[in-house]
Write a structure and sequence with these properties.
It is built from six helices and seven strands. It is of the alpha/beta class and 149 residues long. The chain starts with a strand and ends with a helix.
């Protein structure tokens, strides 16, 4: 599966790629050479709005033309022929990119809102940043957006 790295101009894009299960680093730095080194070392494709960076490293950098996150997301899906599969949705932390792990409901009782704890049965946790996830109403919205692509 293809892996990506986005720069500071494509943070929203990184989040959407993570939501559909693609390993996507986000590096908000002015040191572009650092992004290139990581991409080369980890065999990642760089996604950026920096036209000069794309011209200097055409073999690993893809210039994003879209002006907003959603059009950028569609552009990358089409360019790299990315698959959107239900089984891959919501498997990565949207904040730090770490793969999520299931966690027993009882273990999240004091860490989620009471109404969520009462209504939901399945939870996942990011072991790196400790964010707890559950299937909320936003997941319905995300699925609707994905169906339109």
């Amino acid at each position: 599966m293809v892996k990506f790295i986005t720069d500071g101009m494509c943070g929203g894009l990184a989040r959407w790629l993570r939501l559909i299960g693609y390993d996507t680093l986000y590096l908000n730095t002015s040191r572009k050479i650092e992004i290139i080194r990581i991409a080369e070392k980890e065999n990642r494709i760089v996604l950026t709005k920096d036209k000069k960076l794309a011209e200097n490293y055409p073999e690993i950098v893809f210039y994003i033309e879209g002006e907003n996150t959603y059009t950028q997301f569609e552009e990358v899906i089409k360019k790299f022929n990315l698959e959107i599969k239900e089984k891959n949705l919501f498997k990565r932390c949207s904040i730090c990119n770490t793969e999520l792990e299931r966690i027993e409901k009882e273990k999240v009782k004091n860490f989620v809102p009471e109404y969520v704890y009462i209504k939901k049965e399945e939870f996942a946790i990011c072991k790196k940043c400790n964010k707890i996830y559950w299937e909320g109403d936003h997941c319905k919205y995300i699925r609707e957006r994905l169906r339109k692509i």
